[in-house]
Each structure stands twice: as structure tokens, then as C-alpha cells.
What we know:
mainly alpha, globular
Amino acid sequence: MVLRTFNLKLVGLMIGSIILIICIGLSIILGYTNTSIETSMAAFRAFDGSNEHLIIQNVRLPRALIGAVVGSSLGIAGAMMQALTKNPLASPDIIGVNAGASFFIVVAVMIFSITSLQAFTWIAFLGATITVVVVYFLGSLGREGLTPIKLTLAGAAIAALFSSLTQGLLVLDESSLDQVLYWLAGSVQGRKLDILYSVLPYIVVATVGAFLLANKINILTIGEDVAKGLGQRTGMVKIGAGIVIVFLAGGAVAIAGPISFVGIIVPHIVRWLVGQDYRWIFPYCGVLGGILLLIADISARYVIMPEEIPVGIMTACIGTPFFIYIARKGVRSS
């Protein structure tokens, strides 16, 4: 733990928030179309209808805000999942949020010929919600009720099932592949603020819920028997945590598609900074998750310029070495 005292943690959170704001500004300024700080400020203070001002207002500002919100949501959801499953490699992927949302999107395109991004948002949110409910139900079967290992196994099984069904459907209808491929890769490009506004209330409620559950999660991570001995209703805490994960991870996937590794990387960095107290972990994950996704998105604009790669591919490139490091560290410690 690097930041050991309350004051250091508070200062660190303030610095992180400032860096997040700077990253939002850089996301608005940087890209294929050359703009400057002055041009960006003028786009909001004295809009003149020029190409640069239109790009800043209609493309880059929504992209920056969506990137910050999605990254923050994935960071907090990943930390909540790792606490709930006691699995250091847990992320929204592990309970099938990405796979469930992707499957529902592909079904909507193939069967109902839906191609609207606005429609994709609600379909993906519905798919993510149904997936988590099914995983929780399967993980609760048996005499012991909901346990971390059963939740993890149920999530992995459902994720594999939906992924296989999605691939099978796409093989049967290649025309659908062209329509959903960019969404399946995960991207914040081309999203409008309307999409963000439609999901934002759920994300805000879930974020507040995560902060309210933080102290109960601290007790639960010590051990379920200890938590019950202290009078905690562990079943209700797990259900509350599941609702938080649905809203955060489902909302993020609904907006930007399945973006991997943010929910794995960020909680580990945060625990290295502030330790195991989830009252600090959740706020830090929100800030650092937004920073990571914005940096990945800015980098994705320059890799093959003038073309761009989806941010989901960039986060995978960043996260894969980190994932391998964590996995090898876990093997050595075991």
C-alpha cells in the first residue's frame, strides 16, 4: 500500500480527479482533425458552425464523457466482482455480462433486423440484466446457497454458452456480422450523448449504491461466517452487490459494447495504492477506470491514423500483459 494515511488517500483522489479532467480535455482536443485548446473553448463560448466546432461539440465531447463514464463503471464493477467472488481475475466478463449482451444484440439484428445504436443500448442492457439474474440463480442452487466458487463457475459456464451461440449465429448469417462487428469489438466512437443520458441514471444509482455497500463489503471479504457473526445479512449484501454490478457493467456494455480488461486492471492498481478498504477502492476505481479508458481511446486514434481502432482492442492490448502477470503471480503464490 503506497498511500497509508487518510490525508494521503484524499490528496491522491483529488490528484486523480484532476488527471481525469485533463484526460477529458485531451480527448476533446486530440484526433485526426487538428484542434487546439483555444478552438475547443471557442466551440462552446462562441460556436460559429465551422467543421472544427461541429466535431468538438458533436463528436469529441460525447466521446470523452462516455469514455469517462464507461471506464469508471467498469472499474467499480470489476472491484465489486473481485470482492464478491474472491477471485483476483474477476471482471464483468466472468459472469457473462459481455457475452449475454452480445448474444441479445446479435439475435436482435438477425431476427428483428434492428440496426439502431439507440436500440442496441436497451437490448444490451436487457441482455446483461437477464444474464446476471440467471447466473445468480444458478450460483444459489444447492444447500450452501450463493457462494463465490459457484457464482464464478456459473458465470463462466453462461459466458461460454452465450459466446458459442453468438459465434454460431454469426456463422449462419454473415450479413449480420458486418452490422454488429464494430459494436462487438467495443468502442466509444460515434456514440451520442442521448445514449449516455438514457443509461446514466442507472449508473449514478449503482455508483452511489457501491459507496453505501463499501463497509459491508469490507466485512464480507473477511469471511462470511464472521460477517454473519457480526449480524450482517450476507444474502442481502450479495443481492445488492449483484444489482450494482448489473447497472454498472450492463450500462457500460449497453453504451460502448463489450470492453475487456478495465475491470481487471484497475482494481489491482487501486489496491496497490490504497490497500483493501473498499470505502477507498470504489472511488479510486471510478477515477482510474475513467483515466485508463480515455488514455486507451486517445491512443487508439493514432495507431493506424487516419483510421481508428476500437478502444476495446486497445484495452485488450494493454490488459493482456497485466492479466498474464496477475495469473503468474497467483500461480507462484499458490
